[in-house]
Structure prediction request, 598 residues.
Amino acid sequence: MTSRAVGPPAGKPWGASAVRLSYDGTRALDNVSVAVVPGQVTAVVGGDGAGKTSLLRCLAGVLRPDAGEIRSPGKSRIGFLPASSGIYPDLTVAENLAFRASSYGLPPGTAAQRTADLTEQAGLAAARDRLAANLSGGMRQKLGVIAALLHRPELLILDEPSTGVDPVSRSGLWWLIASAAADGAAVILSTTYLDDAQRAAEVLVLDAGRTLAYGTPEQIVTGMPGSVRAVTERPAGPAAARAWRRGSDWRVWTPATATAEPGVAVDPDLQDAVIAAALAVQQTAVQQTAVPQTPVQQAPVRRPAGPLIESIAVTCRFGSLTAVRDVSIAVSPGEIVGLLGANGAGKTTLIRVLLGLIPATTGQVRLLGEPPSRLTRRRIGYVPQGLGLYDDLTAAENMAFARAVFGSGSADVPAQADPPDALRQTELPVGRLPLGLQRRVAFAQALAHQPDVLILDEPTSGVDALGRTRLWQTIAAAVESGAGALVSTHYLEEADECDRLIIMADGEVVAAGTAQQIIGGAQITVVDAEDWAAAFGLLKRAGLQVALAGRGLRVPGASVAEVRQLLPTAYRIRSEPATLEERFFDLLSAPDRSRVPA
Prediction:
């Protein structure tokens, strides 16, 4: 086993100090600092264009900043996972790792042992001879992580390792990340997911290259500017620009210098704190950055009295493969239904069957009260994961094309359905806009013909916390006008925005109902420990799956008594209610796949 390098100088960890970086006159990083401590995970949070990748590329030595200091152990002691995963698709898993080991100069014996250990830990041992191009997205990301870990780096840099990855694969990725930190590596990763950030010891929140907040998740929450209150309806007047939807209620942020809005004071969490920090620096621009609300219907729209979308005992087979098995679901007017499941669960196939794009082998499908057809599909607003925009057209041209396809002239479409003026007037093609702006165009395009049904596939992937809430406001406003929405998402925190959830696994519905109904009385064992790495190692050697949560651990599938037998008495071990994500894993791994009634 190779040994680690000495590490950073005492009192001065790896990281960046007052870094500035510009591209063609555009500031990508503006006086950004971060410390990356050995044995600890640091998360860099922000949406597309926030500066996350630029900062990590500076730390990796790929870019040289215009000003400031970068402290790193040198390229030979860095493990770097780029956003593209850095994997060669035309090589097998074993060939990718052999090439990486050779580039690191690892002795053959060491390379063979590390490859065997890491592929086993990542669950890739059985896929050693499979081409990387044939791996799932989650498996490719895990391959990229273990490739970066082969030479036992002192500094591990991961650029959005979990973006677009299903919850099961994200759990596996985080197990590898926690293992690397427990082994002494300094880990820094970028993410758009705030639940990922909550697993880290420290969090740096970026927006347009500037630091919004920095510290432990608890420090960011306690240091939140101003105050947040909960109200039942979106406030009117200037306060509307400082409000965001949170589940069935609204949150309103008030600056410290202003009188608090009416409502109930809430104990903010990390999501509230990050949104408040964004609003604090964008007060004069919130109206320009917010996604336009769903248009108010100009005239009553005739909708079926029953479900807008319905499948009855639908099964879909492709040869010997059963992609969807005996699935019955319904989406009614005025409700948002979340569709959850790991990759390969059957979600996309089910959506395509509901749209009438592929036929069901057995069972019935009804779209707006009748079998799917071109006529019924005209009443659907669809945002695919790939957004469905033409990259070489401007926002206005994309909108004009969509109106022509749906047969609605500009006079028929309320102005609120359009993208904001800044997007309508830009001559830039959509392909050159940041992802957050592209999603706003896609939403506006999907809503322009006042659809009865919204079908959204990963609608907020890659969007910052404030932008994500604005997009959910748009969805909720459409539903409040009488439409129905079916939303597929990997981001389980968004379950709070849904009225009901449907969880699929292996083509079947394994649970349905509200988040609370699905969680039920499930409990999780929690270990509170500053010295979390030692506890992680003991539990790992016992064969338990352990999840990192800041400086503590969460241990699914093991009771307090079982964990207490494995750890010294100095550790505080307790039980608390499981999260939806933890219950999700239980459902997917349960041999009997017990159903939760709707």
Observations:
- The chain has four domains: 16-216, 219-289, 309-515, 523-577.
- The chain has 19 helices and 26 strands.
- The two ends are 52 Å apart (CA to CA).
- The domain at 309-515 is CATH 3.40.50.300 (Rossmann fold).
